[in-house]
Structures are given as structure tokens and as C-alpha cells.
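This is your field. Please look over both lines of this record.
***
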Amino acid sequence: MGTHSAIEWTESTWNPLTGCTKVSPGCKHCYAERMAVRLQAMGQPNYAHGFRLTLHERALETPLRWKTPQMVFVNSMSDLFHAGVPLDFIQKVFDVMRRAPQHTFQVLTKRSERLAELSMEIDWPANVWMGVSVENQDYVYRIDHLRQTDARVKFLSLEPLLGPLPYLDLRGIDWVIVGGESGPGARPLKEAWVLSIRDQCQTAQVPFFFKQWGGVRKKRAGRLLEGRVWSGMPVSERITA
């Protein structure tokens, strides 16, 4: 089994790299950064450098040892398309994902320019879902970059959602996740923003997943929207042996 994940839309996490730098407002209260500082203080060797970008060659082949097919979130503690990650390392990560067809891998980036730039250099396996994060209207261009890739399944993580996204272009998008910010200093999420995105997804027939309201008391706020849980998922292209 992989490292079990508390993230609602996945099952395990795999971190062949850790550490990152901030690129946009969604990064302000980075959960991974808080976690890395905690792990460094606990003496966890992978976090000896805290939140400085670090590649972990030793962790590359870990998913090949997990027999149980599962959803694996890649780099919950970093960004695979960070400028500091060499292309050959990115290709090694994709190679491992190709060699573990029993799993579905979810990769998420805010560095959509580099993603679009490198897409031609990547052999996209069917079991990789590629996503971009969009926190407000200023970053919807990331969706266009995602559309330019050859990823089989493309998804959006609108989290932490910091403003309305009234005119989403969902052409070619297979899944949308929405969530509010949680933890210290969490910025508020307005119901109207969430309902607007849900309605756009329904019109475009794109599965919609509402992760959380967030806030400082994330558990108490829960994830009900208009009295129900929304856990839409893309139709998996995973081939079962």
C-alpha cells in the first residue's frame, strides 16, 4: 500500500520530489509547506532541507511495489513541473507510471506553461490524469495550457477557490474539483461561486467533485452543498487485468 491519503479525491500519495516555491495567490497558505516544516522538525530524512525543492531518486520506483490497484496523487508535497525539476526526472516519473498500469495516477500543477511546453517530450500513459490548479479568474489560462497536452484525462482543481469563475471553458475537461481553503488564516469560500461552477459542470456534462468548505474548522464545515455530497469522478480508463 502507498502512503494513505486524507485527501478526499484520492487514495494514496507518492512523493518522488518534495519542496516547492510560491507562484500565485493559491500558494499563500500552502498546506505542504506547513507539513514539510513539521516533518523536518520531527527529523524525517526526506525533509532535511525543509521545503526546499529536493528530488528523491530512491522513491521513484515505490508504486511498482504496491500490488493493490489504487488512485495515487503524485507529488502532494511539490509540483512535478517546477522549473527546478529536470526534464529527464519528469520523464522517469512518467516511465514509472507507465510501468504501473494497475494504478491511476493524478498529477496536478500550477506551472501550466512548462506543462504545455514539455507535453511533446512526454509519452502520456492512459493511467495518468493530468490536472491544473486555478484559484481565481486571473489563472484560467492554465486550463488552455492543459488542453494543449496529450493527457488522456484532464482535470481542474479549483482549490483553494478564492473568487468566482463564471465563464469556465470546459471543452476537453473530464473532471472538476472545487474546495475552500483550510487551516490558519483560511480565506472564505462563497456558496455562489461553488454553485455557479457546479451548474457550469452540469451544463457541460463534466463530473463535479465538491471537496470541502474549508475554513479553520474544516471538519465541522464539512462538504455538503445544497444538502448533498457531490463526488463526481471521471469514467476511469483504467484497464483491469
In short: The longest strand covers residues 104-109. Residues 3-229 form a domain with the TIM Barrel fold (CATH 3.20.20). The chain has one domain: 3-229. The mean pLDDT is 94.
